[in-house]
Amino acid sequence: MPRQIHLRDVAALVGTELGVSRWITVDQATIDRFAEATDDHQFIHTDPARAAAETPFGGTIAHGFLTLSLLSAMNFDCVPKIAEQTMGINYGFEKVRFLAPVRSGARVRGRFLLAEARFRGAGMLAVRYDVTVEIENEKKPALTADWITIIQFDPKDRPTTA
């Protein structure tokens, strides 16, 4: 997949996997910083000894929302940029499912399929990705999501076929 695409080419890419991100290590320091930022200090995330003794995970696990928050970095890493884009906005999620825990020290990556792209108004394109966050050496993904972003562009750049 090229690193950059044009608005006129987006419709033809619906149903296509746009990219797979690099692996990101989710270590205990990252989990602890996320706990501080969100004030979520549940022991399954922040106390390795207790999590090893009292959970089936063998140690601490990342917050589900930490894994979800990595989607922006994953997207930036591998999804082609739209040449005419002036700004991108996170619009939200239709569905998010947390399927498997991400153990401290594990590596995750995102897989992005362009599920839908539709023009809204003169200068916006709504894009929906089917996203899967894989855990290295695990069969089950950490999460799946239907993620919607809005691509803004100058209305003069809107394809005439749109």
TrEMBL record:
This is MaoC family dehydratase. PANTHER family: MAOC-LIKE DEHYDRATASE DOMAIN-CONTAINING PROTEIN (PTHR42993:SF1). Pfam families: MaoC_dehydratas. Residues 12-116 form the MaoC-like domain. It comes from Shinella pollutisoli. Signal peptide: none annotated. It comes from the Bacteria. InterPro entries: HotDog_dom_sf, MaoC-like_dom, NodN-like.
